User: Fold these one by one.
Assistant:
Number 1:
Amino acid sequence: MYENGYMHGWAMNGTWGLTHFLVFAVMAALILYPIGLILRKLGYSPFWAALACLPIVNIIGLWVVAIGRRSSDAGQLKTSDSTGNA
């Protein structure tokens, strides 16, 4: 693996070839697409999925989604208030 102090392999060959960019694009799609689907179902824009790549912002985003009120929650509150049952 090490030869003359350098690590060899497709990720450490010293160039950013086509294989590197293809693997990066596939990995990004495998991560960002499902996150976008989940965000869309929760009522957020799927473009916020791009923030999942930023180290500290992704943790803050998880907390916002976990604690934030969703549009479906507001609809449930209105229906329970109109029926008189809390």
Number 2:
Amino acid sequence: MLALPEMKRKNTTLEKVLVEDYVAEGKTLARVEGKVIFLENVVPGDLVDIRITKSKKDWAEGTVIKIHEFSSDRVAPFCSHFGVCGGCQWQMLPYEKQLFYKQRQVEETLKRIGKVSLPPTRPIVGAAETRYYRNKLEYTFGTKEFTKEAPTSPAPPEGGGDDKKLIPPFRGARGCFAGFHARGWFDKVVDIKTCYLQVEPTNAIRLAVKNFAINNDWTFYDIRDHNGFLRTMQIRTGSEGEVMVNIVVAEDDSRKIKLLMDHVAKEFPHLTSILYTINKKKNDSLFDLEPITWKGPGYITENLTTENGRAFHFRIGPKSFFQTNTKQAEKLYRVTNEFAELKGNETVYDLYCGTGSIGIFLSPFANRVIGVELIEAAVRDADENAKLNRIENARFFAGDVIDVCNDDFFSTHGKPDVIITDPPRAGMHEKLVRKILDMAAPVVVYVSCNPATQARDLSILSEKYIVTAIQPVDMFPHTHHIENIAQLKKRDTHS
């Protein structure tokens, strides 16, 4: 073992170091003579050789270059792309262990960053289905492939077969690749053969489009040179079997587009909607583009059901925001409704309301719902979804909450009895947190996809509120991402 001073040098190698624990964001840690070393792609219990890539006074970062012994917690990854594709970082962990570490991450993050008094955390709500749970995937077509070899590893234990393998090596053909953007590489694509995140026909569609383009000698998009025809593809699936495909091309070539659309329609006659989008920009965002419907209505419909059996229908287009795990979203919204403690006479403000799914889900239990969202297109979707479900007590407004929610707005729509806030990963801007303090609703339900920024915001909200309930929900099995719901009550109303 190297002495501590030698670890100050980059590229120092440490041999046979025990991986001890998980920390936030899926990283693991080891300790050498008291110094913490952060690692990735290994499991507590692994015995590894490490190359130091960054070293500070009290901590370092390293890359695993060899595994001498595997942790007893390891299981066989079910995907051949594991370790190359960065989409499912925790496939080598049993699902019950994933839930254990996610629950602990929520608890420790809220305590360490929030520094507020917390109730006991409820047991995490796991997913019944840990494969094929996404209703939306976005594939990329590119000219450069990302490949990665596994660290050298010992042979599997006697009689153990391949169930201890860390990362199956993967190599694809060269020149035309279809799959996912490689983590940390904007110009390289992981060429996917089979993905287990979305039900079929997702893989069949991707491969059919890829092969049709190759057979016709069409170019794939090069994001560095900004040329090529076939660019990206989005597939959305519904729980009732509806499928929508939106193929994005970088050239306005009507002949190629017709050939491609006709081919997809012929090969997959049961698709609900087929669209294409022409994107000549340097970025892949669809926000300012207009998808063109080739077949079908141009959308699919998804359903969410409350605990008392009421079903809500949501019209989802190619640019709509909707929770990507429908079944877990239903559980998430039911907890949100429980935490809101609605009696039927409340005015609920749904901040960051998006396309209105939470507000609509809660509408039967409240007197009125007021949704506020910055993106106008999302508000239009929310209005359409309210009409679709014949909801008359929900209204949605476009604009910044800080500007919209003023005294005149309150006098027109009422002050909130309950505030629901579901911000992006960056959390809420401090001005918005202060605005919630000013709005002074008796109950706040904070839905978060990032416990670290949630903890930061809870610390500020503690001026007027106490945290009365915490419920983690696993929306994304086999990843380190975790959703958490916190119930807050105003200090002068909570007994």
